[in-house]
Amino acid sequence: MIKFSSRMDQLKGSAIRELLALANKPEVLSFAGGMPAPELFPVDKIKAATDAVLEEQGRVALQYTSTDGFQHFREQIAERMGAKNGIKTDASHILVTSGSQQGLDYSARVFCDKGDTIIIESPSYLGALNAFKACEPNFVAIPTDENGMIMEELEKVLATNDKVKMIYVIPDFQNPSGRTWPLERRKQFMDIVNKYEIPVVEDNPYGELRFEGENMPALKSMDTKGLVVFLGTFSKILAPGYRLGWVCADGEILKKYNFMAQAAALQASTEAQLVVSKFIDMFDLDEHVATIKDCYRKRRDVMMETMQKEFPPEAKFTFPNGGLFTWVELPDYINTNEMAKECLAQNVAYVPGDGFFPDAGHNNCIRLNYSCMPEDKIVKGMTILGQVIKANIKK
Known about the structure:
The chain is an alpha/beta fold. It has 12 helices and 15 strands. A 7-stranded mixed beta sheet has the order 2-10-9-8-7-3-4, with helices on both faces. Helix 7 (183-196) links the parallel strand 7 (164-169) and strand 8. Helix 4 crosses helix 5 and helix 6 runs parallel beside helix 7 (183-196).
């Protein structure tokens, strides 16, 4: 009989991945994945950048490279972080990864032993929870309100739990809730973090996708003690298929991530780095992001308007100012896992909310994505979902 490691008991198949497989049929209106709109991918420009890379340095593109990534590419990332996130950094503080998901995987392995505590928001990103579970930690989920993590609750935990090794947060357009922390809460958070000196993993895949209002400074931009590890990605602003992300961290912490990368993956794709770098040199990435934001803003508005019209008053949902998701909370007696089957029977897919919590329960929530469906299909899908919700409401 084959005996697996104990950590495999912690890992289950991703509910999102399984749903995406079911929702992959062309007739299904899927609001399940965190998928960028494929019609916005700049295929022709990517082709031009690829051709230029292969023509100018084809042998370099097809060879191994250093673990931390190409110097010029890391310089471009550092420059963008300064412009978009207010983070003053340079190439020496950047490690290129295979998507920010790899950065999440490294994070738990860098900071946590079995039985250590990771603090998360409630709810939190399902993919992060799955990545962290391999290290067999304990999770403490801090309650949230419309402005994100509640700081008084965070401080209570840190004052009474000496096994906390890491805090994981998504302050901008959080996955799954779509909420964003205001400036005052960010300042409170950093005061608490500095007091207890706990490492923070700041996940920022959606920060550039703000539809209205002012950009908020990243937590990393307020970091005076080198405690914040910033995770970024090109998946939501260019193309997820390249699987390119990065870690920005200070000295000793970044060195540990680098050691982990050497052991786990050697490096991120050489060709992908060079092509994305060449794209940034040849074309206007900001212009491309503006096109993405314009499209997603319209789709967000259509989804919100249709939900307001078609959902019953018992359904509460967030109104995100950016990112890819809204979060729906239904009465406690509704099981959204069961309801998902009813919706799939009518060719509508969503992600039930229970996977975004580390503990059992929370079966009454739904995460909806608005970035990947055109407006007419959003109207149709939300109308069907509204009808199913109404049918499940107790009179």
